[in-house]
Write a structure and sequence with these properties.
The protein has 125 residues and is an alpha+beta fold. The protein has a domain at 36-120. It has helices spanning 7-29, 89-105, 115-120, and strands at 36-38, 48-54, 60-66, 69-74. Mean pLDDT is 79; it is low at 23-37.
Length: 125
Amino acid sequence: MPVVRNSFIDASSSLITKLGCIFLASLLACTDKPQYDAVRPPNINAKYSYVVTRNEKGTWGYQVFQDSTLFIDQRTIPAIEGLVPFASKEDATAVAGLVVSKLRENSTDLPSISLNELDSLEITF
C-alpha cells in the first residue's frame, strides 16, 4: 500500500519550525546585558580608580577606570541573581573599592565578587 503524504502538513511543519527558530533567535537577542561591561581587557601596568554613580531611579552603581578610560560600568550588585541595583552609596562604594583592590592585586583577570564577600561587606540586597 503506497504512503500518501499530505503536502499541507509538511508545509505547516516546516513553517512552525522556521517560526520557532526565529522566535528563539529574537529571544536570545533581547536578553538582559551582563552585570558589567568590560570596555577593554585588564592591563598589568594600569592605574585603577572608581567613581560611584547615581542611577536614574535613585539607586547607585559604580564605574571603574583603567587609567582614565572607563573599564567597568557596574549598575547592579554583582554575584546575585537578577539585576538588583545598589540601595545605598555606601554599598556601591564598598564593592567598587573591593573590585579596584582586586584589579590592583591581579590585573590580568577581570575580578569576580562572591556572595560571601557581599555578606562580609554587609551589602543590602
